[in-house]
Amino acid sequence: MARLVKNTTLENVAQFLEMIAPKSLAGSWDNVGLLAQAPTPCEGNGVFLAVDLTTEVADELLSLRSMNTAIIYHPVIFSPVRSLKLAVPLQQSVLRCIAAGVSIYCPHTCLDAMDGGINDWLVVGLAYPWEDGAPQEGEIVALLKGGSNSKPVEPCSAPRTPTEGLGRVKQLARTCTLADMVSRTKQFLGLQHVQIALADGKNMSSTLGSFATCAGSGASVLRACTDVDVWITGEASHHEILAANAQGVSLIITNHTNTERRFFRDVFAPLLRDQLPALQVHVSDKDRDPLMTV
C-alpha cells in the first residue's frame, strides 16, 4: 500500500479548525471536515479561502502554485456520489486540486454555529448603529470578541457553550426602523441591493426591536422565530416568505453567499494569520455570489 506523504500544513489547519469549530457543531444533514485529501501534497505552505469551489475559483487557486490546503466553506461533496469524473465541472475542480497536491477542508455549519462565528458576526454587524456613522476599522471584530449577546435559534446537539448553534435571535438595545436595518445590511455586507418582504401592516418606517439572522439559506432555521420583527438571511422560499409575513415578520434577503463571504476576509483570514503565522493565507479574489441584480 502506498504511504501518504506527511502534510504538516493540512494537519495544522485541521487541528486548528477542530479546536475552534469542531465537526460536532455541524448540522446533522451537513458534510464537513476533510473532504478531499491529496496523496502527494504541494510543498508550499499556502492556505486558500473561498466560499465556493467554482471553476473560476479553482483556476485562481491552482495558479498560485504554493497553495497546499483549501478551506472551502460549502462542501465540495454533499450528496452521495457514485463516481468522480472530469466531465462534471464541479467534480473536475476537486479532481484538479487533488492532482495538484491541494487538499480541501469544508467547515460549513461548524463556522456558523461556533461562538464568534458567522452568525455571531452577522449579529454584531447588524446591531451596530451604522446610521450614527460607520464603525472604525477593526471595531466590528473587536466587538465580536466580546460576544454577540444573542441566543441560538437551533442549539447544537453537542454544544460546548449555551450560545453555540444555528441562527441567532437578537434584542436590540436601541430600536431602529426597517429602513435603518436595510441600510445597515447593505453597508455591513458591502451590497448595493437587497430584497425585502414587508409583513402585513408594516412599512419602511416601522420600528424594530428585535431581529433573527442565519447565514446562507436560513429561512428553514428561522421559521420558528415568529416573535421577532425581521429576519435577515441569504435565501428564503416563496412560501417561507408568505408564512413569515402573515405572522408579522418582515424579511431582508441578501442572496445566499453575501451573508458569508466577508466573514472570511474580515474575521477568518486574520484569525488564521494570527494563530498559524507560518502559513501563507490567501482569500480568493474570484469567489462571488452567482446572482447579480441587473
Automatic annotation (TrEMBL):
Keywords (A to Z) from UniProt: Metal-binding
GO molecular function: metal ion binding
Residues involved in a divalent metal cation binding: 74, 112, 256, 260
Any single Gene Ontology cellular-component annotation: mitochondrion
SUPFAM superfamilies listed in its UniProt record: NIF3 (NGG1p interacting factor 3)-like
InterPro entries: DUF34/NIF3, DUF34/NIF3_sf
PANTHER family: NGG1 INTERACTING FACTOR 3, NIF3-LIKE PROTEIN 1
Membership in a protein family: Belongs to the GTP cyclohydrolase I type 2/NIF3 family.
Name of the molecule in the record: Nif3p
Organism: Malassezia vespertilionis
Upper classification of the organism: Eukaryota, Fungi, Dikarya, Basidiomycota, Ustilaginomycotina
